[in-house]
Amino acid sequence: MPLTALGSSSAPGTTGSRRGSHPGPHAPVPAPATTAATLLLNATYEPLCVVSSRRAIVLVLAAKAEAVDVTDDEVHAERVTVAVPIVVRLTRFVRVPYPVTVPLSRRAVFTRDGSTCVYCGGSATSIDHVVPRSRGGTHTWDNVVAACRRCNHTKADRSLAEMGWSLPHPPGAPSGAAWRLLGHRTVDPRWHEWLGMPDSVSA
Ligand SMILES: [Zn+2]
């Protein structure tokens, strides 16, 4: 649903100048009526980041972005009324360098592995180094997995070969738009389709 500025005649009866107010030719600035957040997409529809809805409205009014999805709420700017956007898309493509890898953290490992033990599929409660640190294993995405206490304790300082265990798939650093936004803030469910996230992923 495209956002439409509702025109300059939306304030009937107040066409006279207001007490020495001289609005210039610059872009109207919306009142700070909303503190909501808006998902910003690149021109290619790739998710970029989350901005304040106020910032998103400024982008729309400046024709630097177009609304892709909007709420029923409206914001009154200087001469126009605009719907508060949920998702906006830049009208021109911008090239943005992203960090090569997601920072490694316990929470991120659990999220990547679905909070399940990679060895037995049970509920994960700990982090395991596939190649034990005592044997030179690194604390990196390709050597860290979620594991249950039992498997972690059983494996101890041995290698997978020694245990006769195997991994369902090689661990690696997560990537993708949703990961760039995870941890940034609460993810609005209405952004899921743009982030490639299933609706069942709760914020
Ligand atoms: Zn296990």
User: What is the strand tally?
Assistant: 6
Give me the strand/helix succession.
EEHEEHEEHHHH
- Average pLDDT number: 79
Q: What count of structural domains? A: 2
Overall morphology: elongated
Descriptive report:
This protein has helices at 53-61, 106-112, 149-155, 160-163, 177-181, 192-195, and strands at residues 37-41, 47-52, 65-76, 81-90, 126-129, 144-147. It has 2 domains: 3-90, no CATH class; 106-186, no CATH class. A hairpin with a 5-residue loop joins strand 1 (37-41) and strand 2 (47-52). It is 18% helix and 20% strand. The strands form 2 sheets. The chain has a 4-stranded mixed β-sheet. 24% of the residues are buried. It starts with 36 loop residues before the first strand and ends in an 8-residue tail after the last helix. The longest helix is centred in the N-terminal third of the chain and has 9 residues, at 53-61. It has 203 residues and is an alpha+beta fold.
